[in-house]
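Kindly draft a polypeptide, keeping tokens residue-aligned:

***
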Amino acid sequence: MSKKDELVEKYAADIKDKFGETPDMDFLDKVAVGLGPAIYNLDASKVSGSDEKELETVRNNFLIKKLGLSDGPELMDAITSVIDRYGRSEKNKHRAVIYYMLAKHFGKESVYN
């Protein structure tokens, strides 16, 4: 099993355990591939739920630039909701899981096709 496949399995376990959902493995794999080498970097592969600058980066670089959403308060509301569901006390919030959940939330899976 490749390193990427191992990481995707870890992300899938988080989606099952933290969100109580069965992940779409094909889509999760596409999200991981879309993150490129960042998934292998310990710092870049995680999102700090308490760092406002980090959350702004998720909003600007992922929701607005990647998914093509219009800026508005609903974007930060969605990020906050995903962070809360992941668990504020969870130290290892994987960027791929957060991006996966946000893309699902906004129905933007087609961006990865």
